[in-house]
Every structure is written in C-alpha cells, then in structure tokens.
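Hi,

Apologies if this is the wrong queue. I'm a grad student, and the batch job for ABC transporter ATP-binding protein from Pseudothauera nasutitermitis produced an output file that my downstream script rejects. I'm not sure whether the problem is my script or the file. Here is the sequence I used:
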Amino acid sequence: MNVNVEADRPDARCLLFALTKGRRAMLAGALALTALAVLAELVPFVLLYRALERLIEAPQTLAAALPGWAAWLGGALLLKYLAYGLAYLLSHHAAYAIQAGTRRQLVSRLARAPLPWLHGQGSGALKQSVVQDVERLEAFLAHHTVEASAAVLAPLCAAALLFWVDARLALAVLAVGPLALLGALAFLPGSRRDHDLFNRATAALNNATVEFLRNMPVMKVFCPAGTGFPLLRGRLHDYYRLAGRITRRTVPGWALFTSLLGAHLLLVLPVGAWLHVRGEVGAAQVAFAVLLGAGVFRPLLKVSRFFMDVPEIFAGLRRMAPILAISPPPRLPAGRVAAPVEVRLAEVRFTYPSRPVLRGVSLCLPPGSFNVLLGPSGAGKSTVARLVAGVLVPQAGEVSLNGEPVAALDEGERAGLIALATQEVFLFSGSIRDNLCLARPDASAGALRRALRVAQAEALVEGLPRGWDTPVRELGTRLSGGERQRIAVARALLAGTPVLVLDEATAFADSLTQRAFFRALRAEYPERTVLAVAHRLHGLERADRIFVLEQGVVTASGDHARLMRESAYYRSMWRLEALNEQWALASGGEAAHG
Ligand SMILES: Nc1ncnc2c1ncn2[C@@H]1O[C@H](COP(=O)(O)OP(=O)(O)OP(=O)(O)O)[C@@H](O)[C@H]1O
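Support response: The file is valid. Your script probably expects a header line. Output copied below for reference.
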C-alpha cells in the first residue's frame, strides 16, 4: 500500500490548496466581488461626511444636493446587493463543487485502498472524514470566503476613509484596536491547551454516548433505573467541569475585547475637541470620525469566529490526508494464479498492537482440499483466516497462493481468487439477489440456486415475500442471525473463487444444518480449496486435513484418526461433542416417548 509518509503530519494548507484546484478562479471572483460590495458600503459614509460639512458650513445648499445623494445612495445599495449576491453565489458554487470533488476523491481512494489498511481503520473515523469533515469544509468555504474577507476589508476601508478625512482623528479612532487586542491576549495563555483538552473531552463524551445508546437495551434489562452506566456520567461530569473552567477563563478576556472595541469615544472625542478648538479640524470631520468610529471594528468580531473554525478545518484536512494519499499499487500482470489453488502459510508471525498472536504458523492446503482449523478461543484462528483472505498482512513469513504472495496480488485479482465469509454479516440495501450477486452480477439463476442450496438457504429464500427479489430493507430485522449467515455463505460460494475461507460462518447453524452444509459443499464444489474455522466438529471429521491451533502455533495436524491419536485437545473436544450428541439424542428420545 502506498500511503504517503508525509500524510502523518501533512500540511493542511497545501492540501486545501490542492483540493480547491479548478475552483480557485471562482473563489477569487467571490473575493473581488466582496471587495466591491465593501466599497459600495462606504458610499453612504462619504455622503454622510458631505452632508455634515454642508449642514455645518452652508445648510441652505443641503436641499439642492439631496436628490443627487439619494441617487448615489440607491446606486450604492444596488451595487452592494448585486456584488454580495454574486459573491455568495460564486462562493457557494465553488464550495459545493469542492465538496463533491473531495468526496469523489475520498471515495475512489477508499475503493482502491488495500484491504489490510481498510481493516485497520474504524468505520467511525472514515465516516468523519468522508461526511463531517467534508461538510464542514464546504460550509467554511461557502460562508467565510465572503464573510471573513468582508469583515477584514470593511475596517481597512473605513480606516482609509478616516485617514482621508484626517490622519490624527483616524489614529485616535483606531488606537482602541491594539488596546482591545492586548487586553484579550492577557487572557489567552493556556487557551490552546484548553482547546486541546476540550476537543478530547468532546470526543470522549461522544464515544461514551454512542456506547450508551448502542447498549441501551442491555441496560434496560439489567439496570432499569439507568444507574449502570458510570462511564457516560463520568464523561459528562468531565465535559461540563472543563466547559465551566474554559468559560470562566475566556469570558473576561472576550468581554474586555468587545467593550474596548466599542470604546473609540474615549480617545476620539477629546482629541477631536482639542483639534477643533485649535482650529485644525472642522466640526464635520470630528462628527464624522465619531460616527464612523462607532462601527469600524464591529466586523472584526466576525473574524474571531473564522479563527475559531480554522483549527477544526485543518484538523479535518489532516484526517483526510492519509486517505487522499492512497495510490493504487502498480498493476502486475493478472492471471498469475490459476485454479486450482494451493494455499501455503510459511512461518507466519502476526502481532496486533496489543499483543503477538501467531508465532510461526506453517500450513499447506493442497488444491481442492477441505481443511479445518480448530483451537481454543483466542488461539488466533480468525487471524489465520484473515491472513489467508488478504485482509491482514503478516509481519514475518508469507501467505501464498500457488507460490505467489497474497500481499503482492492486485486487489481485483485477490478478490477473484479468495472469498471470505465470517460471523459478522453485512447485508446492504438492495434485494437479496443484489447481495448474493455482489461479486458476480451476471450470475445465472442456476448458479444462484446451487449456491443457495449448498448454503442451506434455498427454502429460506423461497419463503420470502418476493423470493430473492425481496428488498433487504423490507425484511428489516426479520432475518435471524443464522439466516443472514446462510445468505453470506451463499454469496461467498457464488463469487466462484478457487479459495474459500469460512470463519465460523456456520456458527449459528444447528449441528444437522452444519453437517448438511459441509457435505453439500464437498459434493458440489470439489475443486475449491476450503479453509473452515470452526468451534464444533459436526460434519468436519471427514476433512482432508484438520489443524489444531493453540496459543498461536499449530500443535497437531492430520486427519481425524491421526488427531485422535496425537492431539489431547482434539480428543477432548471430540469426546465432549460425542457426549453432547448422545445427550441430545437421549433427551430427544425421552421427549418422544414422554
Ligand atoms: N483487531 C484486533 N486488535 C487487537 N487484538 C486483536 C484483534 N483481533 C483479535 N485480537 C486478539 O488476538 C487474539 C486472537 O484473536 P482471534 O480472533 O484470531 O482468535 P480466535 O482463535 O479466532 O478466537 P475465537 O475462537 O474466540 O474467535 C485474541 O486475544 C484477540 O483478543
């Protein structure tokens, strides 16, 4: 798998720049139009200045000037309306296009992502990148392109206008800006740490809430009073304690900042009066500075929201980076592995981050053979199944098909060679047939029926309201665990792969169904190389080879007779099962007689 190493600490700005490719002209257009709208917003202030001048110096000429000013005002309003309207149109258009493009890229990379990499990602984390992070980016670009740039440009233009009127009055108005900033900065130390803590507390609370909601039915059974989930209570407590602390810390700084920003009169009034008394500025200039100064910094409050959103957006971009860095592995010539297939594990070692699981496992599954993997819980059986299926890659040793390492196979080629059915069954929306034909959409009705018959699912599908055309959604929770599992097994059989891995895929089946399934599997698909992980032996004692895995190593292998001689674990398992079966028969017989 090619995942850029840089992706671990990717530069979010570079990524943002790359994602906006092809839409930058539109965003630049939105910015230009915003600037035009901000300029149009200044026209009323210029007119106000002229009006004040006339009012003070020549009030009799005011009436004659009014119609012209009204036309200017109307024109400026129209221009502002058009410029803002077009700017929002462009920014939204660009943002939606970037959203769609980013999602398309993420989804296509994920579709090409190697199975082992996908297996290591949580579905929640992937959902956050593909859904929430992209949506947040869209909202940010659509709104902040116009609003944040207007909030920055408006004070700049207002300041330029003040300087045009009088530089000293302008400085008196603008001086409160740095003062407000200094006041706010005094409360800033520790805010980054608070921000990190808050993010962590929010994530922990979200996880606890999801766990609580998921486990609510169990909670209802065991603790109807709802007192049995201390984790959520603890997380809620931590969250509100932290939120309270951050609020107490930030509110004084924020209040000082907003109060000082509106306190321009403190300086401009005495300075203006002093300059006026000295005859250096007119009353109109002082009045204009007072009026314009009242709103000069107000837009900056919006910019603070922009800065609050930026870290979130950049964090989202950093989460997307590893997905976007996935590049398809180089295409190797297909068809290097042809059926029938021999599966070989050579000295395979595998360690999960938590602990080592396989400590040198070697297996050989000859072409067309039927193999069973048994062992106590936690021995590593599912890990072996996932390694054979190419979902995991061993840290040492090799898993190969006809001598070709599974890890080196093209994704498409691997999918055409190995099918995996596990206990966890995922049926996606669509009909039962769509689910069955996932790997082979062109499967014939005959192949479909054969797979269903072998998977012991024929009667089940026939009993559905519309047979295999029944939509899964229509069934809701009607399918039991065992029924879903049978559909999944039929899907794996229908894939037509020469290697079939069944990881406890018959766990829900009763002993008779399991027996019938394995018998039919051997009879109908004798050419397939099968590895079945199982807990129960029903129907498996006739397997070509049985492997016993204990604590990450194969402790015995061979046929039933050999294992009965050589493996204490196998013997005890077999006796226990024989005992269970006798007991079941006896109790069945008693029931029949009674
Ligand atoms: N994704 C994972 N991350 C960390 N540890 C894991 C992971 N999957 C499995 N393990 C651990 O590896 C060990 C072997 O797990 P595995 O599922 O392969 O065993 P198993 O023999 O199939 O067990 P069982 O019969 O109970 O299903 C277990 O201790 C398990 O907790």
